[in-house]
Amino acid sequence: MATSNGDILMLEAPPPDASRPWTSASNAEVVDALPYIDDDYANPAVKREVDRLVEEEMRRSSKKPSDFLKDLPPIPKLNFQDHPMLAREFERVRAGKPPVPLDMSRYGLEAPPMNKRNDETAWKQALQKAQRLLQHQVIRLENLDLMSKHGPDVWKQYNQQLEAFLSRQQAMALEQNEKIENVNRERKYHQQNTAYELNALSAQWRGLCLKNIEIQEACAKIENHLEELRREAAERGWNLEVSKDNGPAFPLE
Q: How far, in Å, CA of 216 to CA of 208, rounded?
């Protein structure tokens, strides 16, 4: 929205996206509010009237909640064909079942049960399990040793990367806020400068509307008066349709 001299008063919406028809406002009314010079927003009476109109529209509306979503794209179907574990977990969550507890028995070191104490195979399996657990503990110790040597430097480098990322994001946010502030400042400047012209045009429009109403009222009175004259002429037998060239339309007294 702009004035005759090209000053921008209100930013127009971008063109509708054909791939997202639900964002199109083709059937909606254009809101041409000027918040920097319109004083009706803080008026409680206006707010009550707006709330009443909204409630009335909601009562009269025949739309159901599902009608507001019919223009949205359909929800994609989840396909776990190549991920059976995710499929089982999805079905479990959808059925509301509790998660399966983790099996911690593999981390325990126990001797064979009493009925297999004389079974050589059972003792070999227990020994292999003990060797696996021992190797696992050795690897954990090696990892802890590497962490103690190189962990602080790695964490410092990671923190530096996070700080650099945070600085970039803050700079981008500051730049966007400045752009938003400039747009709002420009809108406020143009709206306030054009407020006098808009108020004068509004007053002129109201005056013309009142004058038109007065003219319509005067025309209606004239029509009523002419109708009364026609009725009176008809009662006296006067022919008002006779041309003036043919003489008077009623007898001279």
A: 12
Query: Cα dihedral sign for 206, 212, 216, 218?
Result: positive
Q: How many CB atoms lie within 10 A of CB 132?
A: 13
Indicate the length of the chain as a whole number: 253
State the DSSP string of 67-111. Answer: GGGTTSPPPPPP--TT-HHHHHHHHHHHHTPPPPPP--GGG---P
In angstroms, rounded to a whole number, what is the distance separating the alpha carbons of residues 33 and 46? Answer: 14
Residues 6+ apart with CB under 8 A from 37: 191, 192, 194, 195, 198
pLDDT tens-digit readout, 107-122 = 788 888 888 888 889 8
Rg (CA), the chain: 43
Q: Which of 179, 176, 199, 182 is nearest to 34 (CA)?
A: 199
pLDDT(36) > 90: no
Answer positive or negative: Cα dihedral of 103, 104, 106, 109. Answer: negative
Which DSSP state fits 28? S
Token pair belonging to 189: 């400047």
Task: Mark residue 103 as left, alpha or beta (left: phi above 0; alpha: psi -120 to 50; beta: remaining).
Answer: beta
pLDDT over 70 (residue 243): no
Which tokens sit at 109? 């070191």
DSSP assigned state of 195: H
Q: Are 187 and 8 in contact (CB under 8 A)?
A: yes
